[in-house]
Amino acid sequence: MSDTATRKRGRGTGGGAARRAERTAVRIEAARYIERNIPNLEMLDDAALELIEANAETVLEEIGVVFSENPAALDRWREAGADVQGDRVRIPKGLARKLCSTAPAQFTQHARNPERSVEIGGRNLVFAPVYGPPFVRDRQLGRRYATIEDFRSFVKLAYMSKWMHHSGGTVCEPTDIPVNKRHFDMLMAHMTLSDKPFMGSVTEPSRAADSVEMCEILFGKEFVAENTVMTSLININSPLTFDATMMGALEVYAQANQACIVSPFIVGGAMAPVTVAGTLTQVLAEVMAGVAYSQLCRKGAPVIAGAFVTSIDMNSGAPTFGTPEAALITYGAGQLVRRLGLPYRSAGSFTGSKLPDAQSAYETSNSLNMGLLSGVNFMLHAAGWLEGGLVASLEKFVTDADQLGVLHTLAGGVDMSETGQAMDALREVGPGGHFLGCAHTQANFKTAFWRSQVLDYKPFETWADEGGRDTAALGEARVEKLLAEYQPPDLDPGIADGLEDYVARRKAEMPDAFN
Amino acid sequence: MSDTATRKRGRGTGGGAARRAERTAVRIEAARYIERNIPNLEMLDDAALELIEANAETVLEEIGVVFSENPAALDRWREAGADVQGDRVRIPKGLARKLCSTAPAQFTQHARNPERSVEIGGRNLVFAPVYGPPFVRDRQLGRRYATIEDFRSFVKLAYMSKWMHHSGGTVCEPTDIPVNKRHFDMLMAHMTLSDKPFMGSVTEPSRAADSVEMCEILFGKEFVAENTVMTSLININSPLTFDATMMGALEVYAQANQACIVSPFIVGGAMAPVTVAGTLTQVLAEVMAGVAYSQLCRKGAPVIAGAFVTSIDMNSGAPTFGTPEAALITYGAGQLVRRLGLPYRSAGSFTGSKLPDAQSAYETSNSLNMGLLSGVNFMLHAAGWLEGGLVASLEKFVTDADQLGVLHTLAGGVDMSETGQAMDALREVGPGGHFLGCAHTQANFKTAFWRSQVLDYKPFETWADEGGRDTAALGEARVEKLLAEYQPPDLDPGIADGLEDYVARRKAEMPDAFN
């Protein structure tokens, strides 16, 4: 794989074959992460935020949280000054917030290609792919269990998507690989098929440790000791419960100075109260307890405060997406997290739809827009999510990823330079004139407007002649084009061999397990 | 028609038939217009706004605007202190803004059912249907020229859509009716098939006068003299040109104290500069000149400052929708209009897609969300727009109208009452528990979450068993259901007869014209 990659890519490797490859190489455009030049929407006023903060402190002190089957965690909390009874940890008011204060407000997640490294926090926004679906769907084969080949396709698509900054983690579950060995193949895909930053395994502490070791091969042991090279997803078992598996992975990552997203996973009405303010209170309490715990494991460990929030359809019990309640919570949680001085993770290409149809796009756009405007710093699930997260959609991945370009341009704000003001154009054209030919337009039109790479802008007749394709069909064509053009990024053959050897050795040490 | 309406509706008409009708009547839920309880997103800072305002004054003074073929308008401007040369009107700095100051910041548009009257301006938001398409599309018959029967279907759907506050105007062009007689049939539909507020004709000053006269029959002459009962769309011929037809209609409406939306219609790059700030400058100059002119026609006449803005696809020349440039302009124009102290019209269910597919929903949601957050007071085209405004879609109308409910709930903000805080629920459930059964959930779940009336939340298997319908198919079913259940609102038979007599007489006075 790595040899092939080197031959195909030919970047900086010298030699005739490399030079020939250079001339024919597919150009990968990759936008830098978003640095917002626009304000956030501050949905709640200070009085509301202070009330929620006070309530969250009450929740932590009076109700407390559970760290289940984790005596070491209970010891850490006891030592920090919490009241520990059984596995219940009651945290005195002010303590959790104080512990959170040692987490950095912003950190760099390094990619093996330094140009793809991302700054997480501040006014920045980083997009990462869908995470977790056991199924995939495409137009050709429909809905089916995901395989490692599907996984690789998503990694390739993310690599080739201009507006996608991150390779993600479990872009889909490779169900054809034994459960206890999946993380090796997933990490191999991220490490070799892409040069964007990625996430590590969290399904067992030992798999987190494997992730760190593979990063040490990829980046070098010293580099990993001093830098953050993974940002991994640690879900809280809402309400108010931190299970041993997730906390075990967090412990591994925090101690290795690797970043965790500490994130309540809430279906409102089931795992949290049915109200926005009540849910925000619970989210804040959970996030503060989880982030505080990361700092008990290693003071200064990088962390992202997350909020995955959806509502329940009270008729069917199904989770719903792109809803106004989720939007209000996303805005409010952003404000609360900023007051904690932490990077914020929320929003995504959420939808409950079974198909990449209008419903899926309404719901996705609602969520993407609120994600930008609520100050999200790390948006997991930014493309490809379908059917409540059960399905990763290839076609939706590319159309969602295209829409991320809308957010990029919107986040850039308004150019108020003389060119932006365009007074010369207004003077040249005058009443009743046409701007297409004027000097200002000629000088600026190429970069003036964001342009979709997949949506259809053609006149009706042309569009009809070309088969009258809907968005899913346009997405399918784009998936095929990108996968056909895909070429892996260059990778040192020694490193590639090292990764392969490590994976082969570790896989040989364990029997296959399928659950 | 009116007799039937009375018999079927039976609201407050007494008698046994009426009482029987009452029991079986279809209940029409109609939400009040939105009163925002959330902040607007203030995209531009004061320095940027002041620069654009200064530039707009420069445009008006140095470049000026054209009032073509309209000697009376030129006289009015000359008298007001403008420099008039030929049909070019150069407006000294400060004059247009000063003239705008007599327009009301907020006004009531009365509906014949007082419960449906709307307050336009302030923190309010009123939704109105798509306006202007010559074609309609539905799943059964595809794309075709619109007829008066299609027009009536849209009026019925708007009447039955809970989140749609307004019946609109030219919801589609009834191309089967002679051009010079269409306005009669369109107004009849709005007046008899709905009891929501509506728009008048603007395609000729005489048709505006007909609209006023029909309103005098519907509301009473005295009521119309003292109240605003129509809000009609006056487009500016950008750049900087005010044609005699549109201005003639504006003159009729302003003098009758009826409201006009004074609105640049801009495809950026063609009718305005390719930059956001340049377009905002032109929009502000045009809006100020147009609103100022309305006040020269009648000081205090109600008016809405509009901005219809899209970009051009520089490859194909096609207009594009749901783009970030349009969003930035919509946000900025909202700020500029608020600083003028006027109600603001912008955004809508815009899309360039040919089908009600994912593209149409991405683009529509982008625009709807920015419409809410940019402080729009009157959103024309809030549902049903397709294919760049060439097509009105029945299925998209109902799915868009459903999404307007998302904006309603979002605009309501966060309930910070004790019930909203839900501390009792958090205490009752505790770590690891479940909120579905708790007392707080039981007391509040019915109203806790916005719920779509058309989108699919069912489990995959149920959805598949029911035919695996996409959003367009779900929309089709909803259209059929609503049209089947439709019953016209009650109307005094004398008024209905009066309208019919007026229309019959006026139609008989003129030969058919088809262009």
Automatic annotation (TrEMBL), chains A, B:
Sorted UniProt keywords: Methyltransferase, Transferase
The EC number(s) this enzyme carries: 2.1.1.-
Classification via Pfam families: MTTB
InterPro entries: MttB-like_sf, MTTB_MeTrfase
Enzyme class (EC, first level): transferase
GO biological process, one term: methanogenesis
GO molecular function: methyltransferase activity
Region entry Disordered, spans: 1-21
Recorded family membership: Belongs to the trimethylamine methyltransferase family.
Protein name as it appears in the record: Methyltransferase
Lineage summary: Bacteria, Pseudomonadati, Pseudomonadota, Alphaproteobacteria, Rhodobacterales
